[in-house]
Amino acid sequence: MHLPCANYFKEHQYVSQQLSGKQARYLRGLGHHLQPVVLVGKDEITAGLVSSVDEALELHELIKIKLQEGCIMDRKDVASILAERCGAAIAQILGRTILLFRSSEKALITLPKSKQ
Hints:
This protein is an alpha+beta fold. 37% of the residues lie in helices and 19% in strands. The N and C termini lie far apart (39 Å).
């Protein structure tokens, strides 16, 4: 498994978000029609992959990531590592597809309020 260098993470410190069930359900509905914007292949998690996911999240807020057949890592491990590194929340893991969300300053997506 290839992981980005330590300097990358020192410069990009994020805290992963937590979603309520209502918010995750809302995001799954929005993400249903999306096409994957990032593909994880045999190289697995690299600095370039983390950078691509980070840029895609900043631009779109909600993205689909597809694990190709060559990826030998567990899908839950890939999702949790990418979410942690990018400060995103996992909205769904379905088959080889991961749905990640991270709100940006532009706030394209307004999440429903969770019950307190």
